[in-house]
Amino acid sequence: MTRSGFISVVGRPNVGKSTLVNALVGEKVAITSPRPQTTRNTIRGVATNGDVQLVLVDTPGLHKPRNVLGERLNKLVYGSIAEADAVLFVLDAEQPIGPGDRLIAERLTESGAPVVVVVNKIDRASNEEVLAQLVRAGEWNFSAYVPISALKGDGLEPLRDELEGLMAEGPFFFPPDMHSDQPDRLLAAELVREKYLSRLREELPHSLAVVVDDIEERDNGVLYIPASVYIERPSQKGMVIGKGGELIKAVGAEARAELELLFGVPVFLDLRVKVEKDWQRKEDTLNRMGF
Ligand SMILES: Nc1nc2c(ncn2[C@@H]2O[C@H](COP(=O)(O)OP(=O)(O)O)[C@@H](O)[C@H]2O)c(=O)[nH]1
Ligand SMILES: [Mg+2]
Q1: Total domain count for the chain?
Q2: Which residue among 18, 19, 76 has the greatest number of ligand 1 atoms within 8 angstroms of its CB, and so is best to mutate?
Q3: Residues 120, 253 within the same domain
Q4: What is the rounded distance in angstroms from the CA atom of residue 197 to the CA atom of residue 218?
Q5: Which domain holds residue 41?
Q6: How remote is the CA of residue 97 from the centroid of ligand 1, in Å?
Q7: Is ligand 1 within 6 A of the CB of residue 124?
Q8: Is residue 88 part of a domain?
Q9: Where in the chain does DSSP place strands (E)?
Q10: Residue ending a domain, choose from 100, 135, 169
């Protein structure tokens, strides 16, 4: 008999939720970056191990909403908690538990789902810091507490055991060899955005969205991927294109290399910059962009 379930991965921005989902899945299904608001949609990563399947739902970090996009992101997280069989609550070993964490803990207590707390980034903290964090979080009385480093892979085995132990008998939701439910065009768009996030300065990343409408297989075996890079103001054009097109070329080359690894065929990535005024604030634009 197989066992399976949905596990919602929640926590403040930047604590390492997406890194952890990738580590548990064993493949990159979600982009990561040191910036908040990197994850903008719920991505399901699938980790199948023998007769147990974990469906890990990566979510945007919970934060105070500043606009329509922020509100939608928070709603996504609460929706994901409501549907989950278990919750993985991620804390950063280096960051003191704050009001944001307490709010999440309260919501989780109300939801009644079993919660596994992980204290992540132990590679950067001292044993004392990790222990203190575990003790403080222990006051919440959740199902289990596991110190890990998602980046280095430490503590993943005990964590997997805890999660697998919480799964009820039931059929697999996805074929065992599938790693994500994300359509290729979404992953392609996310990879382009990730490359931009690592190269742009503070303000701009929030104004940036990438949309891939469809991926076309050409007769010569090349995968043609047209990607629109949306910014909010014409004045931002120079910032995403770079001097003499340097930046957009570098981003394109990095993203293309990763896409070719992913799809295993040559890729022609066609990046175009478009201005869409205030897209984060407009309901219809967000719909069109797939949020
Ligand atoms: N040192 C260290 N860095 C980590 C670890 N996990 C995640 N990070 C880094 O923390 C940043 C945020 O990670 P990300 O997964 O995007 O966080 P999210 O916003 O919660 O999804 C990235 O720069 C990651 O490389 C970890 O275990 N150790
Ligand atoms: Mg993330």
Answers
A1: 2
A2: 19
A3: no
A4: 30
A5: 3-169
A6: 17
A7: yes
A8: yes
A9: 3-10, 43-49, 52-58, 86-92, 115-120, 144-147, 168-169, 209-212, 216-217, 223-231, 267-275
A10: 169
pTM (global) more than 0.70:
yes
Is residue 177 included in any domain, yes or no? no
Whose tokens are 């719920």? That residue is 42
Q: Could you tell me if the CB of 18 is within 6 A of ligand 1?
A: yes
Say if 174 falls within a structural domain.
no
| Phi, psi angle pair for 63, to nearest 5° | -155, 170
The best mutation among 32, 37, 129 to test binding of ligand 1, ranked by most ligand atoms within 8 Å of the C-beta, falls on 32
**CB count in 10 Å sphere of residue 117:** 24
Å from CA of 24 to ligand 1 middle: 14
How much is the pLDDT for 20? 97
Residue 175 lies in a domain: no
Same domain assignment for residues 34 and 154:
yes
Give the whole-angstrom CA distance, residue 251 versus residue 190.
Answer: 12
Joined together, the tokens standing for residue 145 give 């507490």
Q: Are residues 126 and 264 in the same domain?
A: no
Q: What angle do CA 124, 130, 134 make, to 5 degrees?
A: 145
Residues contacting residue 23 through CB under 8 Å, at least 6 positions apart: 150, 151, 153, 156
Q: Is the CB of 125 under 6 A from ligand 1?
A: no
Here the tokens at position 102 are 């307490």
Coil vs helix vs strand at 117? strand
Q: Write down the residue that tokens 């064993």 correspond to.
A: 26
Q: From the first residue on, what is the mean pLDDT of each consecutive set of 10 residues in the chain (291 residues)?
A: 95 93 93 78 90 93 74 77 92 92 88 95 96 95 97 98 97 94 89 90 78 92 95 92 95 95 93 89 76 71
Element (H, E) at 286: helix 283-289
Q: Is the CB of 8 under 6 A from ligand 1?
A: no
Contacts of 242 by beta carbon, 8 Å cutoff, 6+ apart: 248, 249, 250
